[in-house]
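Need C-alpha cells for this chain, all 188 residues.
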Amino acid sequence: MSDSSRDGSGGASRLLHAIERALAGLTRLLLVLGTVALVLMALHVIADVVGRLAFTHPVYGTTEIVSFYYMVAAVCLPLAYMELRDEHITVDLIYLNMPLLLRRAVFVFSTLVTALFFGLFAYQSWFDSLRAMASREMVMGAALIEIWPSRYFLPVSFGLLAVAALLRALKAVLSPRDAETHLQATVE
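Here are the C-alpha cells for all 188 residues:
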C-alpha cells in the first residue's frame, strides 16, 4: 500500500495534480498569446516608424492599438503562468529562516490574500468589461478605435491568477509533499 493511500491524500493529490495540469495548459496558452502580442507590438511600431520616416504615412491607430491591446495583453495575460510557477518577485530573507510550519502558514495566508485580491479585481473588471462592451467603448486619438474587447484581458488574467493562487495554497495544505520546495521538510 502506498503512503498516499494510507493517509487518504491520494485522491486529493491526484485531483490537485489534474487541476494543476489543466490550469498549466491554460496559463501556457495565455503566455503564448502575451508573447504574440509583444511581437506584434514590436512589428506594429516598426511598421509605423518606417511608414512615418520613409513614406511620410504612419500606420493608422498605432498608439491606440499598442496602448489598449498589445501592452495590456503582454503584461496581464502571463500573470497566472508566473503565479503557477512561483516566479513573481519575492523577498524571502526572513521567510526562509522561519521554521517549516510557520513558512507553510505564511505561504498559505499570503496565497489566500493574493487569491482574494485578484479574485475581487477579476470580479470588478468583469463588470467593467461588460459595461465597456455594452457602450462599445472607443478611444479617440489619431484614430477612432474600439477598445472594449481588450477590457476582457483583465478578468481572464486575474481570474486565472486567483485560481492559481488558490491551487498553490491547497497544495501546501492538502499535499505538502507536492508543494513548492521551500515548503517541504529537508532531510539531513
